[in-house]
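Our platform keeps sequence and structure together, in a single record for each protein. Nothing more is needed to write down the fold, since each code stands for a local backbone conformation. An entry from our holdings is shown next, in its original layout:
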Amino acid sequence: MADDNQRTSASRVGLTPRIAEAIAADLRQRILKSELTDVPLPRQDDLVQQYGVSGPSVREALRILEAEGLITVRRGKFGGAYVHKPDWSSAAFAVALSMQGQGVTLSDLAESLEMLEPMCAAACASRADRRETIVPALRENLDDTEKVIGIGDQYSAKARVFHEILVGGVENESLRLLVRTLTAVWSIQEQTWAENVKAAALYPPEEDQRESLRTHRVLAKLIDEGDVEGVRSLAEKHIRATQQIVLDRHGDEVVDSSSLTAVQAFKSL
């Protein structure tokens, strides 16, 4: 953040009895307007001077921002408050928390993706630059996926990347953020399931994995050819079929955002 942006007086913030919240609001706006991430905020002593308030007020403001995931307070020699601009991964965790709190089931989440993912795949097929952007990434993923056929959890992870490439290829930023968020939530549910069934030796047989890979190859070919309706139709059938493997066992379960496995998975996004 530029120095002149940092020279904020208490009067600019508009001090109220809730001083810490006013400071947090101003810092929040500065973080979201900045193009930078993982950079330090000014030191607490400097913030005290800039805002003309007490140390406890600044510390409380930083605690508010840390709770929101906008900063991380690090200890030690290189400690301080470091900025984290929110992106689709932070949105995914927030949405998953809300889903779990509202009792949203995996079947409900799957239904939303059945409507949205084929739309994204079709959008990729309609892109004029698809052969320079989307298709090479899909082909690379297909090669990587083929190498791990027969290794259940690794195959599941690589296969999900194929879907993430399709969603990431949507040019409309709002739609991309929305669907990528939901896709990430589903991927983590699927990842948790894959680890559980691997331990129980219940993962689908190798031939099912090969069939899924064949479908991915056809989708990539249709996208390369620009067959929008063909992509949409096949994507609908494929998504429904692949989701069913999880839904047969866990469809009535509520989205998991709070278990240790799920939290660690969200942090790794």
User: Anything to note?
Assistant: The chain has 13 helices and two strands. The CA atoms of residues 89 and 182 lie 10 Å apart. Confidence is low (pLDDT under 50) at residues 2-7, 9-17.
